Amino acid sequence: MFLDKVDIYVKGGNGGNGCVSFHREKYVSKGGPDGGDGGRGGNVIFKIDEGKNTLLDFKHRRRFIAENGEDGKTGKMYGKSASDIYISVPPGTLIKDTESGKIIKDMSNCGEFIIAKSGKGGWGNRRFATSTRQAPNFAKNGLPGEEKNITLELKMLADVGLIGYPNVGKSSILNIVSMAKPKIANYHFTTLSPNLGVVAVDRDFSFVMADIPGLIEGASDGIGLGHDFLRHIERCRLLIHVVDISSSEYRNPIDDLENINRELAKYSEELIDRPQIIAANKIDLIESEDNDFKEFEEYAKNLGCEVVYISAATGKNIDRLLEKIVKIYPSLPPLKIYESETFEQDYIIETDNKTHEVDIRKNKNIYYVEGEWLFKVINSVNFDDRESVMYFQRVLNKSGVIDKLRQVGIKEGETVNIYDLEFDFVD
Regarding the domain with residue range 1-154, which homologous superfamily does it belong to in the CATH classification? Predict the structure, then answer.
């Protein structure tokens, strides 16, 4: 089974909470705060596995959630950080945001990529000790890890792509020139998934060739298998257009060329501009060598394509086809790498001096204040502790929340609601 597109859910581990603790030891008075910090959660990391060429590993597992960091402990002991999760994907896999469809990362010729960052561990109460606040009775909670719904889409990495109608000999050619062993039979749609093979021309030069199945007229609209596999042609730097020059299935090779090129153009305007070599296959089935291919060659010339007459069944002129590929190879366009269409936003730390984004709305004389960073602050405050509450008030002032409330017209004594925490505004 071939699987080249799948939706999955990833989540980084939450950071551990900071610990509230005070040193207690015989003969040691006023030991002071000794609550340790929480450990960070685990990251979710993608890496390339050169041995994979399908997303079949994701058929039965669609959720990847890293472990949370441990909470801080007494005695200034840090909580243990969680291990990272590694997800292996084939080279050429695009990571997309499921909702927007935007590309997050192209896993081609790159190193490891963190898709869901872990939450940082919270500070223990010893971090909040100062000369004037010697016994802080509060700590900071760990931050939540990132979570995303993403789509993995495989676009194979191949230098040369074999395209053409079913049963024209694409798999046979790949079988001859490489060690790949695709299924070969005399009926349509023998190949149900792309096949890759490494073609070793000599000790110092080789390239990757792909057999792209299922292209027929209407492929770009979902007819046949082409709608599923057209995406794998997008990376190919050179296209070998295989046609049945013998018309053994009563199709005109010129019509085949026109139809397939039309589908490529409808799918992507870039594809029709890719360099092409026409491999006129099944020359062995033509009884007379006096056949006139003038019209066919004139059509190929107008396309700007060279023609090589071959027989995948007997191996005739396969070496000439390889010579043409080697000759044109240095001038081929570079491998297409997709740029990220999103950007990663670092966690906002509530102690920054920057003004943070908040949403303020009024409903029945209550001002509702919301913001992702503010939700994290709420979770780190001990509202039973006076000093912790004072810390929360300073955060609201420094971040500009109080100023924004004034700007929307709040009056003294009116109610402010921050994630179900309500208090009267005092100016």
Answer: GTP1/OBG domain (2.70.210.12)
Structure confidence at residue 187 (pLDDT): 41
Q: Do domains 160-331 and 359-424 have the same CATH topology?
A: no
Q: What's the pLDDT tens digit per position in 317-364?
A: 999 999 999 999 999 988 888 888 775 443 333 333 344 688 888 888
Q: Do 360 and 367 meet the contact criterion of CB atoms below 8 Å apart?
A: yes
CATH code linked to domain 359-424 = 3.30.300.350
CA-based nearest residue to 310, from 173, 203, 427: 173
The DSSP output letter for 117 is P
- 3-state SS assignment for residue 71: coil
pLDDT over threshold 60, residue 73: yes
CA dist., res. 68 & res. 83, Å (int)? 9
8 Å CB contact between 213 and 232: no
Q: Are 211 and 174 in contact (CB under 8 A)?
A: yes
294: pLDDT strictly greater than 80: yes
What is the per-residue pLDDT across 197-220, written as a single tens digit (0 to 9) for each?
Answer: 888 888 778 888 888 876 656 544
Task: Kindly give the interhelix angle for 253-267 and 294-303, rounded to the nearest 10 degrees.
Answer: 20
Cβ contacts of residue 130 below 8 Å, gap of 6+? Answer: none
* Residue 165, SS3 per DSSP: coil
> Judging by beta carbons within 10 Å of its beta carbon (0-12, 13-18, 19+), is residue 390 exposed, middle or buried?
exposed
Cβ distance 282 to 245 under 8 Å? yes
* Average predicted confidence (pLDDT) for the chain: 83
Residue with tokens 């994290």: 376
User: What is the sign, positive or negative, of the torsion defined by CA atoms of 212, 213, 219, 221?
Assistant: negative
What DSSP line would sit under 348-385, residue for residue?
PPTTSSSPPP-EEEEETTEEEEE-HHHHHHHTT--TTS
Q: What is the Cα–Cα distance from 281 to 292, expressed in whole angstroms? A: 15
The residue type of 418 is I
**Domain 160-331 fold:** Rossmann fold (3.40.50)
Hey, what amino acid is at 378?
A: I
Extract long-range pairs of 194-197: CB within 8 Å, 24+ residues apart. 194/2, 194/53, 194/156, 194/229, 194/232, 195/171, 196/53, 196/156, 196/158
The structural domains of the chain, with segments of one domain joined by +, span 1-154, 160-331, 359-424
| Out of 78-92, 130-144, 217-231, 309-323, least confident range | 217-231
Q: Do the beta carbons of residue 228 and residue 240 sit within 8 Å? A: no
